Every structure is written in structure tokens, then in C-alpha cells.
Amino acid sequence: MEKIYLIIALSPLVGAVIAGFFGTMLGKTTTHTLTILGLLLSTVLSLYVFNYHVLERGEVFNQNLYTWIQINNLNISVGFLIDNLTAVMLVVVSFISLMVHIYTIGYMYNDVGYTKFFSYISLFTFSMFILIMSNNFMQLFFGWEAVGLVSYLLIGFWHHKERAVQANLKAFLVNRVGDFGFLLGISLVLVFSGSLDYTEVFLSLEKTIDQQLWGLDLITVICLLLFVGAMGKSAQVPLHVWLPGSMEGPTPISALIHAATMVTAGIFMVSRMSPMFELSDIALTVVMVVGAITALFMGLLGIVQNDIKKVVAYSTLSQLGYMTVALGVSAYSVAIFHLMTHAFFKALLFLVAGSVIVAMNHQQDIRKMGGLRKKMPITYWTGLIGTLALIGFPGFSGFYSKDMIIEAVYFSSLSYSSWVYVVVVVGVFVTSFYSLRMFFLVFHGKSRVDVHTAKHLHESVSSIIFPLIVLAIPSLMIGYLTIEFMLFNGWLDNAITVASSHISMAKLKYEFHSAASMIPHAIQTLPFWMMIGGIAIAWLFSIYKVQWANWVQKKYYRTNYVLESLYGFDRFNDLIFVNGVKKLGNFLYKVSDTSLIDKLLVNGSTKVILLVGKILRLIQTGYVYHYAFLMIFSLLIILTWVLFTGENPLFEL
Amino acid sequence: MGISLLSLLIWLPIFSGVLVIFIGNDRANIARWVSLILSILIFVISLSLYTSFDSSTHLMQFVEKSSWISQFNINYHIGVDGISVPLIILTTFSTILVIIAGWEVVTKRCSHYMAAFLMMEGLIIGVFSSLDAILFYVFWEASLIPMLLIIGIWGGVNRVYASIKFFLYTFLGSVFMLLSIIYMYNKGGSFAIIDMHNLKLSFTEQSYIFWAFFMAFAVKVPMFPMHTWLPDAHVQAPTGGSVILAAIMLKMGGYGFFRFSLPIIPDASLEFSEIIIILSLISIVYIGFIALVQRDIKKLIAYSSISHMGFVTLGIFTLFLSYKQDIIEGSLLGLEGAMVQMISHGFISAAMFLVVGVLYDRLHSREISTYGGVINTMPKFTGFVILFAMANVGLPGTSGFVGEFMVILGAIQANIWYGVLSASTLIIGAAYTLWMVKRVFFGVITNPAVSMLKDINVREFSILAVLAIVVLVIGLYPQPVIELMHISIEHLLHQALTSKL
């Protein structure tokens, strides 16, 4: 098996290296064929691994490949841990990456950086594999940073766009703030356990009992620090600010990196660390609350956005919030379940958005679209499936995962969980409102497309359409098909630990009968009607009475202002962090470094030496009469001294 | 056994330098080729030092000893252990780079330029292999002279100020070192460094010696607040000078702490370790903020060097606080992390200064505002720059990560706040490096001169490619480097933890 895992991880790397170094030489067709073949291989083998581990219940594979560093008893290695969690992630990542690779052919064909783009997305896939297959914290951090690097490169892919290179710098730095916490968390893990290997760390968790740091339990501090890392990567408030900006990158990577895979790395990581998080209710509560805030408030921002990609981006933020809430209530498998369904339908939605953008000649403003349904039927239908999955329409994949999250919160015994329950239910309304608003504005109603674009408006090419169709299938069905196995039949049991005091999952299992029976049950519950309400309001405002939307905006202009200024996070960061740090840097440079240390101390001391030299030079003139005068003058002083005190100072020397 | 390996490594470069001077500036091309071939030969010889080195013992190897000034018992006494071998290889490697880097660029007194670097190579290898304190001191001071000349002759507009500042600063520091060496000779009757390791010293004596050594080494590293010579020196130095300065000369300071401070005066080192740690943390954080606001690319990288070298001193001096109940991994992480950081910084800073050199050769400007959108005309070059920038930022997979990671892991075992402050470089380092990259390389071209730029040629490509490979290999597989030094470091740790009182 070891060889199979290696091939899964390395074949995209080989593709990336070939595309990167020889891409221009090989030409477009050869490059994309090679990278896609590499990904295809990974995908097929991932399915095989999934079958072996999850379906046939094969043994967990945990082995080091080579020693990275060895210092006495401390061994930090590169190695693989393949259990069911990894297997599920492998399938999701490789499958979506494969689809995005194919999609890229159509989307990027006329771009000068075509082969480079393929190199990057293959490199990304490799990094993501390394992240999810890791069996230790060092390698996790490697993958973590490597996906960040590729994200940085891809957001700034169109490097002539000032906004793009601004956004990629911002993305990297905000992620680094998260990584700062993450690295400290990892370091503290080493402090108490003396190891960075997952298994060894989890086995030595009892050593943390009774240890305190900063007035909290050590384990709480560690979990919170690790979660700061997750907040950066998975864009939780207040470290979410980079994700909307990342939409400056080409759409395929928005689907792959900034919706389906990389941003869920934080969710994956916390699930992986479930044995640790389970020991700290404080950490779990923080996780849950942060997730809830993100879920609701980022969703609200989706309502006022007019850029098609930005709407989907805020929806991603909100959905990541939902996953985080699930982590907080110890429903890790539900979080992974939502991660999976979300990966399919959100990748689909982004690719749909990309299809629309190409057709619209890179116009992204949804106010200038409308009525695209007839011109782009396949994009329309797949987009509808994605949208219904996102809002959790009964039967669609998102329905199962989101309903389970809401239920899990309902059953949670954590403090504040009842508040969070209200938030996630209201979130359903918000999700449904902004999703359908976008959907209606783009595909229904009267066409607001400008005449020139309208003439050429047509369905996208087959390499774009194919991934849409392929992704629509799991968006529709994967929830129905897998919910029972994934949540209640122990697919993820060998990777996830839940303490017996956290009862959400147990209660969910007790209440669950079958996937089919969830649908009639759901219709009698509040979230369903919230969703219907969202659809209705969206229809009202964007199709039936468009002027009402304007009226509401004017009437509640203060609220509207708050939303449109994105709660002021960016302004705050610019003011305090960007300018503050620049000012501090300038102050330190000019005042402390240049004036104080260099001018005063360093050059000052040379000046003092020069001055002393000058004075000394005065008395060494070389004239005999100067010296004679000095001698006589000195003698006079000494004689006076002797006369008046009766002591001879020279004898005492 | 004929002429021994280590002596060959010291004297071959020096005599090569003399030879190259005699070739003369008129026959520049011959001088270039001879220098290159000789420097490669020296590098190959230094590799055989590595292959025949036995990393399972902490004892000095390739030892040679013959009397030099017998009245004072001063000997020509050299030898190496796992701490000096990597630094010697770093030296021979970097010398090849600077000779290639100066190939077409240096037209003024070309043979002298090459000769200066070759001689400096020999002298620095002398520093890293001396086992006699006076011999060490002689090499230490002598290595200043070629650098002084390099900055003073081939430097920028303000070169005289910079070179004198450089010379006085470092010279002042080392005078105190000489005093303490003589003091210890008076007490123990030997200039052998190994004898000094075993010399009994009272705490007061140790304290004085500690600060004397500190003056010498901290200036070299350089540590806050003795760092202000470095940005000036770098800005004025020619590219090759900057490369050697950053890649090797700074390491002499770190090496001094390893070879002298820790084993000779362990109690004082323990006593004052917190002060050094605080200065190191200031170096890391404070200098990071200063780097952020630089407008001159080279100055920015110079400040970044100081910040990165802060990890070296931090790693060294946290050793006293990070071992607990006989668990020494924490201390070893710090010490070995400091060594890895020195080696890695050698490659990365060399690469960064070469990058600036490539730009400077083309537009004769180091101002960030001159550039912008360089990626459009120099895509290959920008690819390398992004890699080295990421290494500078300490991205895992590059050598820059290994040392910082180890030092942070060690530091946090000493005190959580050391970890917090040093880890802040994750953010600050990324900010100043990538903001510079953004302004210089990305965006649209605003300066017409940038649109005329030609991408790197084969010569530049090959230097950067070699460095890129080294940076990646060490990042992905640092264990061989660790293995090479491990036993020596462990022995050193034992010495540092054994009180002399």
C-alpha cells in the first residue's frame, strides 16, 4: 500500500514539475494532458484507497518515510497516516482537483500563463495531499504553508492587476497571523509531549492534566492556538478578510482552493486533533461561537454583494462557519460531512460562475446579467442544483449536512449553544436569500446584458460543461447516499474521538432513522420554512418588485452602509495594522536606529575621540618653550600643594 | 602524509590570491578563469574534508600542530569538528559564487578583486579551523583587510565612510577579545583553545571575559545595538562583498559564541544568557519593523539579515533555560537550530544579495521605487526571487524554515514568551519580504527602463539555480547536516552545562 500512497501524492508533483519547467516547450496540449493524467491516476488510486480503508475496513496505515531531523530521542519525520478521514479527504480533493484541471482547459486556454497555471494547480494538489496524509505536526505545517504559497501565487496570477497583487499579499499575511498561532500551538505540543507525531502526542495527552498556562488549562491554550491557525486558513472572523480578496485570482482556483479544499484545511485539522479538543470545553465553546459569528455575519454580507464571485465567496465564508460550529459541538464527522458536500456543490457553483463570467466576457456584476437561463441551459440547470444544495433544499446533499449541523447544535450541552442554535437557523434564511437573489438576478428576469455581449452570448465549451455536469451529480446525491455511513455507521470512527460528555452525536444517532425519512420530517421544522422564506424574499426583491429592494436599501441606509463597508474590518486593519506598523517602523528606523544609536552613540563616540585628539594635539606642539612653560607651571602647582598641605603628593604615587 | 588537508584549505586560497594578483589586471580574462578553477578545486578539497570527516566523535580532526612563536608557546595549531566543517564548506561554496557573480560585472582591477576574495577565503577558513587563540585572532583580524579593500575599492559612492565604519567597529570589538585571550594565557600558560576550555576561572573573571568576547562576537553577528555598521557596509559593498559579508563573515560571530563563550565561560554565559536572549529578541522583532520601511532593497535585505541572525544567538543562549530534568532535546534544538540557521542564512542571504546585484547591474539603482513589474520582462529571474523570498520568509520546504523552526521549538521550552516573540517573525518577515517583492516584481511597469530589462543570462541563471537546489535540499532533508554536527554540539552542550566554579 505504501507505494500506492506515494504515487497518489507524487504524481501531481511530477505533473507540476514537468508543466512548470518544460510547459512552454511541450505546448499546451501535452502539458494539460500530462497533468490531467497525473491527477487521474491520483483520483483512481484514491478511490482504491477509499475502498480499501473505508468500505473494506482495512488497517490504518501509519508509517514514517524518512527522518527529517533526529535529535537524541526526538524524531521528526516525514510520513503518512492513512485512516478513513484521510481516505475521504483524498477522494474529495483528488476528484475536485481533477474536475478543475479539466475545466481549466476551457477557461484559461487563451491565457499566456496557461502551462504555468497547470503547474500551480498540480503543485497545489500535491501540497494538499501532503497536508491530509501527514502523520505529524511538522509535515502538517509543511502542507499548510505550501498550500498557502500556491494560493499566494494563484491569487496574484494576473500579476499586472494591482488589486490581485494587493490581495495575494494580504492573503499571505493574514494567513501568517493564523500560522503564528498555529506554530506556537505546535511548539507547545512538543513541550508537553516531547514529540510531534500524532499518535505519540495523543497518547501522552494525560501529561497535560493540571498544567496551567496564562490562567487556563494548558490543553485549552494549545487548542486555542491551533484553532487560530484554523481561523486563518479556514477564514473565520476576524481572519476572514483575505478570502473575498482572493477572488481576484482566476475562477478555477477560486473553486479548487478558495472554496472546496484549502480553506477546509482548518476544519480537517481540528477534526484530526479531536482527541485534544475534546479535553477542553472552553476551546470548543470558542470554536463554536467563532463559527456561528462567521456563519451569520458573513452570510449577511452576501446579500449586498453584486459581484458574482464575491457572493459565492461570502457564501463560502458562511458555510465554513457552519462547519466550524459543527466542530465546536463535537460533531466532527458532521463537519467533515458538510466539508465534503460543500466541496462538491461550492466547487460547482464557482465553476458555474466561471462559465457565466466567460460567456459574459468577464463581466462579473450580477446587475448587468439576467435571463441567462435560455442562452446557457446546462449552466443554468447545474447552477440550480448547486444553489438548491447550498440552501439545503430537502433531498439535496447540502440539506443533509446542514440539517445535521443544526440538529447537533440543538442537542449540544455547551454553554451558549442555544444562542448559536438561533444563529444557525437564521443563517438558513440568509443563505437562501443571497443564493436565490444571485440566482434570479443572473438567470431569470429580464436581460440587462449590454447589447454587444448579448450578441455573442452562448453556452460554454465542452471542457467547461463536462465538469459542471460531473459535479452536479454528487451535489445532488452524495448527501443522501453517504449520511448514514459517514455519521452513524462508523466511517470516520478510527480517526475521530468524541468524549462521552459531548452528547450531540449520540443523540443524533438516536434520532436518525434513514436518509429518506429526514425529508418529510424536515418539512415540519423551522429551518425548512426559513429557507422557503429566503427564497420568497429573494424572488420578491429580485424578480417581482425590484424597486422594493432599492426602497429597503434607502430606508435602512445605515444598515446597508455597515454591510457594504463589510463591517469596517478592512478599514480597521488598514488604519491600525498597516499604517500603524509602517509608522512604528519609520519611528524605530529614524529615531532609534538612525538618530539614537548611529548618530549619537556610534558617530558621537568617534566625534568625542576626535575632540579629545584635538585637545591633546594642542599640548603637543613641538615647541620647546611650550614644554618649558608647562614644566614650570606644573612645578609651581606642586610646590604650592606641598607648602599648604605639608604632604608630598609625588611620594605617594 | 605530505601536505595535510586543512593546511591546504587555508593556504591554497591565499597563494591562489597571490598568483591571481600576479596575472595582473590587464589579463583580466585569464585572472577570472584561474580564480574560478582554483576556487572550484578548493571547494572539491573541502568536500573531501566532509567525506572523510568522522561525525561519531567530538574530538578535533585533521589536527596539525607545530610551534610558531615558541617563547610564548604560540602554535600553528589547527583542526576541525562538526561545528567548523559545515562553515568551511559554506565558505568554499560561497567563494565560487562570488567569483562567478563578479565575472563580467567587475571591470575595474579585476584580478585584484578576484584575489581579494580568494585570500579572504583562506583567512576565513583559518578562523574556522584555528585551535590556537592567537592564531585565531590573527586570522580573525586579517580577514578584515580584504573585506575593507573590497568595500573601499569596489564599493559605492559612500564607500570610504562605510569601510572605515566597518573596520573600526569590528576592530574595536576584537581588541577586547585579544585582552581576554592574553589574560587567560597569563593564568593558564597556554594559548590552546582546548586548554582554555578546561581553564578554571572564577565568576568575576568569567564575567569580564564574557563581555569582552561579547563585544567581539556581537559586533560581528551583528546583534542589536551593535548592528548599525552592517546596513552601511552592505549598501556600499559590491555584490560579491555583500554576499561574503552576509553569508560568512557574520557567521564568524556565531562561531565565536560556539567555540569560545559557551565552553570557556559557561557560568557567565548562564548568568547573562537572559540579557543576550532579550537582545536577540529585539534583533528579531525591532529590526523586522525597521526592515519594513526601507526604501533601498539592499538595506532591506541587510536588516533582514540582522533579524535572521537574531535566531542564531537566541538558539545558542536559550540552551541554559530549555533543558529540564536532564531532558536535553530542548537545548539541542536551540543549538543545532542556531547552526542550521547560520548555514541556511548563508545560502539565502547570498541568494538575496545576488538578486539585488542582478537588478543593480542592469539599472544601477537599489531603490524599490525604481522598479515595479519586473516579472513582465524577467519572468525566470522572478521565479527564483519568489523562491528565495519564500526561503527568507521561512517557508517549510526551504532551508530557512528548518533553523527558525528548531530555534522556536527550543526557545518556547525556555519561556513561552521567547517563543511568542520569535515566532512573530512569521508575520513581520513575511511582511517586509513579500511587500518588497510585490513592489519590485509585480504590478504594471511604470519605469520605461524596466520594460527594457533583459532576463537573466546563463551565468546568472546557473548561480541562482545552484543556490535554489541547495536551499530546497536542506529544507526537505536537513538530517545530514544535523548528523554532521550532532556529536560535537552534544559535547559542547555538556561543556556549557558543566560549571567551572
Shape of chain B: globular
Q: Which structural category do the helix and sheet elements of chain B fall into? A: mainly alpha
With strands numbered from the N-terminus, the spatial order across the biggest sheet of chain A is 1-2
Helix percent of chain B reads: over 70%
C-alpha-based Rg of chain B, rounded = 22 Å
* Number of domains as seen in the coordinates of chain B: 1
Q: Uncertain segments of chain A of ≥5 residues (pLDDT<50)?
A: none
Largest sheet of chain A at a glance?
2 strands, antiparallel
Number of strands of chain B: 2
Please report which band the strand proportion of chain B falls in: under 5%, 5-15%, 15-25%, 25-35%, 35-45% or over 45%.
under 5%
Question: How does the overall form of chain A come out from the CA principal axes?
Answer: globular
**What is the total tally of β strands of chain A?**
4
Largest interface: A-B, 52 and 58 residues
Cα Rg of chain A: 32 Å
| Count of runs of 4 or more consecutive helical residues of chain B | 23
Biggest sheet of chain B: strands, sense, closure? 2 strands, antiparallel
Give the amount of beta strand of chain A, in percent.
under 5%
Q: Class by helix and strand content of chain A?
A: mainly alpha
**End-to-end Cα distance of chain B:** 42 Å
Q: How would you state the average pLDDT of chain A, rounded?
A: 88
